[in-house]
Design a protein that fits this description.
- The protein is α+β, with helices and mostly antiparallel strands.
- The protein is about 30% helix and about 15% strand.
- It is built from five helices and six strands.
- Strands 1-2-4-3-5-6 form a six-stranded mixed β-sheet.
- A hairpin with an 8-residue loop joins strand 5 and strand 6.
- The relative contact order is 0.15.
- The structure holds zinc ion.
- The site of zinc ion (ZN) has 4 residues, from strand 2.
């Protein structure tokens, strides 16, 4: 099911961990509403990156799936408010993150992670923090800013 011009509900709620472990990752309606917001922001990012294809690594993760994947409990992914992705036709994750940082696209958190970019949105009614961070490995602490 398309939830924006270039993104489907399936790709934004696909979980490799869920498929591997046989866990349910079906989004409930509030999550679908949130994923539509994420898809709208991802469309803006796609345009910013020259209309190049974006590969989604992870969007919605149910609490159970998030736990299995080692995600933090407060993860925006659990609300369907985050997307991990790459756009290799544009550049490296660092180049993608820097392009978003320099744009006027609104986000709560922009994180350059080890191998992809995380964009998280604020929960309904909360102000977007426009917080940019870098996380170099699973165990590394978050560093302030986008650090290539
Ligand atoms: Zn993420």
């Amino acid at each position: 099911m398309k939830i924006s011009e270039h993104f489907t509900l399936e790709e934004l709620s696909f979980s490799e961990a869920a498929a591997r472990l046989g866990l349910d990752n079906t989004p409930i309606s509030i999550v679908i509403t949130n994923l539509r917001l994420v898809a709208a922001v991802m469309e803006r990012i796609r345009t910013l990156l020259g209309d190049r294809p974006i590969i989604v690594h992870s969007g919605y993760r149910s609490a159970e799936v998030n736990h299995a994947a080692g995600g933090v409990v407060t993860s925006a992914h659990c609300h369907g408010l985050a997307c991990d992705f790459v756009c290799s036709a544009f550049g490296t994750p660092a180049e993608v993150a820097l392009a978003i940082l320099k744009s006027d696209i609104e986000y709560d958190q922009l994180i350059l992670e080890y191998g992809w970019v995380h964009v998280g949105l604020a929960q309904g009614g909360l102000i977007s923090r426009q917080e940019a961070l870098t996380k170099r490995s699973t165990l590394a602490a978050y560093e302030s800013g986008i650090r290539a």
